Structures are given as C-alpha cells and as structure tokens.
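[Discussion] Sanity-checking designs against the backbone

I'm trying to build intuition for which residues belong where. Below is a structure token string of 169 positions. I'd appreciate it if someone posts a full sequence so I can compare it with mine line by line.
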C-alpha cells in the first residue's frame, strides 16, 4: 500500500502524474486540497516537482474537457471531445486551459522533454509490467532523470521496482 503525499520529505525530487495536477487545478476534484498542497510545497521550494511534457499536454487537454463539461451541455467526456473537434470556436471560448502553463510555472514545476530514446526505454515497462504507454513514458523519464518519487492516484505504478509511489489519500 502506498504512503501519502505527507510522507514526501523535504528537498525530494517528485514526478507528477497528470491526475495530481488536474485535481490540484480544479476545486471540484475529490483530492483537490491534498493535490493543491503538494503543488504549494513545490512553489515554496520545499520539494522539486517535475512533469513530462506529454503529461503537461494531457493536463491542458483535460482542462479543456472539464471546462466544457462544467458548462452542463454534455454528460460524458467523449461527447465533449467530439463537440470540441467539430466546433473549434468552442475551444476558443474556453478560458481555463489557457492559464495552465502559467500555473505550472508559478508552482515551479519543471517540465521535462520527451525524447526518441525515451520511447525505446519505456517499452520494457509496457512489456514486463503492463503499463499503458503514457505511464511507461513517465517511468522512462523518471529513470533517465534519476527521480524516484511519483505523486499519482494510479496504483499501477506500484508494480515498478525503484519507484516510490505517493498518493493523495
């Protein structure tokens, strides 16, 4: 069983999963306060937070979908995505996603690049541990950057040796 964010000591390098950032940025999210406090610790310099660039893109994408869902016209994310693709002007009228990068910078989150080599390095995490592609990329970048701690609400990462999983709960 994973320990919580409270168990992340000072000056620790922590990789963030998309769900933690999304929870922190949206007050209606179940773990909002716990995730927000983790980002506050990063902003204060107590811990060093990192995010892979494709994970940052996922956060921005989810922000678009969540904002459109909050407008009440749709019940499911898939409906929203279809609507946004067919009505690009709707995206232009959304506002929350436009501030996400600024929010990440203010929280002192270091956005790490993804390389071709990371795609190759991530393959064993899919093959041997059954991780989804984006999750395996997070692990590959963590290994490259020598980051051991991962803040996530996804317990799939517990299967990976050398990864210290910390959850909001």
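Best answer:
Here's mine. Compare freely.
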């Amino acid at each position: 069983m994973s320990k919580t964010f409270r168990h992340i000591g000072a000056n620790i390098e922590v990789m963030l999963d998309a769900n933690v950032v999304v929870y922190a940025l949206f007050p209606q999210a179940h773990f909002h306060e716990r995730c927000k406090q983790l980002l506050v610790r990063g902003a204060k310099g107590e811990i060093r937070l990192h995010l892979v660039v494709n994970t940052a893109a996922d956060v921005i994408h989810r922000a678009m979908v969540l904002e459109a869902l909050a407008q009440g016209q749709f019940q499911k994310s898939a409906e929203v995505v279809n609507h946004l693709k067919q009505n690009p002007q709707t995206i232009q009228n959304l506002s929350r996603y436009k501030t996400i990068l600024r929010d990440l910078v203010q929280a002192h989150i270091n956005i790490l690049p993804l390389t071709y080599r990371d795609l190759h390095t991530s393959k064993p995490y899919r093959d041997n541990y059954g991780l989804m592609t984006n999750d395996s990329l997070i692990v590959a970048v963590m290994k490259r950057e020598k980051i051991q701690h991962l803040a996530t609400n996804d317990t799939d990462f517990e299967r990976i040796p050398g990864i210290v999983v910390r959850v909001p709960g």
